[in-house]
Amino acid sequence: MELSVMQSVMLKMSDIQPNRGQIKGLKKNPRLIKDDKYRKLVASIQENPEFTAMRELLVYPLDGKYVIIGGNMRYRAMKELGIKSVPCKVIPEETSVEQLEAYTLKDNSGFGEWDFDLLKDWNLQLIEDCAIDIPEIEIPSYNGSEESEDDDDEDIEFPSFEHQMVDDVLYESNNAFEIPNLLLSEQGGKLQLPLNPWGANSRLRKDVSTYHFYVDDYRFEKLWKDPIDLINSGCKAIVEPNCSLHDQTPIAYGIHLIYKKRWLARYMQELGVKVYADLNVSRKFRDYNRMGIPQGYNAFFTRGMSGWLQSLIDEHNIAKEISGKDTPNLIVYGGGDEIKEYCRDNNLLYVTDFINDKSIG
Fold first, then answer.
1. Of residues 297, 301, 299, 293, the one with CA closest to residue 331
2. Three-state secondary structure along 108-168?
């Protein structure tokens, strides 16, 4: 198929419109991006403005405006970021609908996910020519992911991470409460610096190697619903979120919190992030907190507390039992001179509160 010659121009965002079927005979864009990938796209453009020039929007002139043939999601991301004008390639007006459809399929290949409910209405020969694989069975689209012709740009609602993942993913478990198992292959090793408390600095930082959650719960509780900030942080390792568990916490609620922190930790492991199991819970929840930590796991973190040496001794013994080692990989965060001395006597790594500099070690 011979494609027309295009011109590269800068266009105002106000002159550009998403493809909603305005062009007679041209079907709606069958490509969609779910919420987590869309957020990554926004972050990528925000951190690398040159990305807009590297991949121009593909537009077609219509009634004094320009309809997007390729780049609907990039357009939305740039609009959200307040970008006023963008580089575009303008398709000549004489271009046929068949050519426009070819442009749409080619531009979207490798990005987002195909909406098969929309794609099934497209020309099958054209789809084959563009090397797009369609499953033999009909795959339903995600309800609410696509926009209707009457939708306004500002009212677009993307499926939340909770809808995409939490209700749909179950991990194997070694316990009756189905608390997910951590992966031995993705356990933390030597502590990589900088080590930062989550929420203490701008989340736009990209130099933090390890995050811990020995902070107020409100700083990290939303990660259960949408961990995109943590995913986008670029960290190499995390300590499991330390949800507040006291002896006064009801057991049912405590198990729920342990499930959530271990599920999130396992999910991060699936993304290649190393995980240290958090042992810092009250005595009442120690047995529950061990659930999902497989025998032989040897990556632990706890928070040392002044005047509570016995708690550290108990957690040290738990780390020994699970790892099977006399000197487990247990890292102790803060607690003062008494805790520091215990760590030195037992060959445990002690780190001072709020390490923010790579030179500290």
1. 301
2. HCCCCEECHHHHCCCCHHHHHHCCCCCCCCCCCCCCCCCCCCCCCHHHCCCCCHHHHHHCC
CB atoms closer than 10 angstroms to residue 148: 7
Q: Give the largest CA-CA distance in the chain.
A: 80
The pair phi, psi for residue 291, each rounded to 5°, is -65, 130
In 3D, which of 236, 255, 118 has the Cα closest to residue 188?
236
- 54 pLDDT above the threshold of 80: no
Q: What is the dihedral of CA 315, 321, 327, 329, to 10 degrees?
A: -70
Give the whole-angstrom CA distance, residue 101 versus residue 121.
12
Crossing angle (nearest 10°) for helices 337-345 and 309-323: 30
Distance CA 12, CA 55 (A): 16
CA 207, CA 205: separation in Å to the nearest integer?
6
Structure tokens at 250: 């009801």
Q: Count how many Cα atoms sit within 13 Å of the Cα of residue 227 in the half-sphere of its side chain.
A: 22
In the block, tokens 């198992």 appear at 181
Distance CA 83, CA 85 (A): 6
pLDDT at 268 over 50: yes
Is residue 188 within 8 Å of residue 293, measured between CB atoms? no
Q: Which two tokens stand for residue 338?
A: 């008494």
Q: Which of 51-55, 146-150, 168-172, 313-317 has the lowest mean pLDDT?
A: 146-150
Looking at residue 229, its pLDDT comes to 84
CA distances from 312 to 1, 158, 190, 352 (A): 71, 45, 20, 16
Question: Of residues 123 and 54, which shows the higher confidence score?
Answer: 54
Query: In the structure encoding, which two tokens stand for residue 69, read together?
Result: 């043939």
pTM for this model (two decimals):
0.55
Q: Which residue type is seen at 254?
A: G
Please confirm whether the linkage preceding 49 is cis (ω < 30° from 0): no
C-alpha closest to that of 187 among 263, 257, 242, 265 = 265
Beta bridge partners of 37: none
Q: How many CA atoms lie within 13 A of 78 on its CB side?
A: 27
pLDDT tens for 78-121 read 888 888 889 988 999 888 888 888 777 666 544 444 444 444 44
